[in-house]
C-alpha cells in the first residue's frame, strides 16, 4: 500500500480528518413543498451514510421542531446529533456554533437553499469558518430561489461542491475497505 499523502500542507480537498457534515432542516413538513425533494433527500442520505461509515462528525438542524416536526425518518437514524433552532442561520445558535467550529470544512446540505442554508453558510463564513455547500443536496420550493442562493454563495466565495465530489474526496483511494460499500450508494 502506498504511503499516505502529506497532511502537513493545507489542501482544498474535503478529507475525512478535516470536515464535518450538517444536514439543515430536512423535516417532512418542509420537504413536502421542496422542488426535487426526493433528490435532495437521496443526496443528503448518501452523505450521511458515508459520513457515518467513515467516522466524520455529522449533525442535523431542525427549524422549530415542536411546530414543524423532527428530521425526516429516512435521515434521523443516521444523524443522532440534532440541534433545534429558532434562527434561520444555524450559525446564530450557540450550541450549534460550538459544534460547527470544531475544525475543518463545514459541509452544508438541506433546505431551504435560499433561507437557512444560505444564511448559515454566510454566517459561518463571516465567522472565519471554511464552508462548502453541496449543490445537488440542497433545495428550495422554487428553482429560481435555489439559483439565486447559488449565485449569492458564489459571490461571497462559498465553495460549491457535489455529493459525489465530497464522497470521493472523503474516500481518497479505491483500496480503502469502505470503497466498494460506499460506491454502491452512487450506482
Rg is 16 Å
Helix content: 40-55%
Query: Order of strands across the widest beta sheet?
Result: 3-2-1-4-5-6
Structural class: alpha/beta
Helix and strand element order:
EHHEHHEHEHEHEHH
Strand content: 15-25%
Supply the CATH class. Alpha Beta
Protein architecture, described:
- 37% of the residues are buried.
- This protein has a 6-stranded parallel β-sheet.
- By secondary structure, the chain is an alpha/beta fold.
- Helix 6 links the parallel strand 4 and strand 5.
- It has one domain: Isochorismatase-like (Rossmann fold, 3-Layer(aba) Sandwich), CATH 3.40.50.
- Helix content is 42%, strand content 19%.
- Helix 2 runs parallel beside helix 8 and helix 6 packs parallel to helix 7.
Can you summarize this structure?
This protein is an alpha/beta fold.
In terms of topology, how is this protein built?
Elements: E1 19-24, H1 28-31, H2 37-54, E2 58-63, H3 65-68, H4 73-76, E3 82-85, H5 94-100, E4 105-111, H6 113-126, E5 131-139, H7 143-155, E6 159-161, H8 163-171, H9 179-183
Parallel strand pairs: 1-2, 1-4, 2-3, 4-5, 5-6
Could you name the key traits of this structure?
alpha/beta, single chain, six-stranded parallel β-sheet
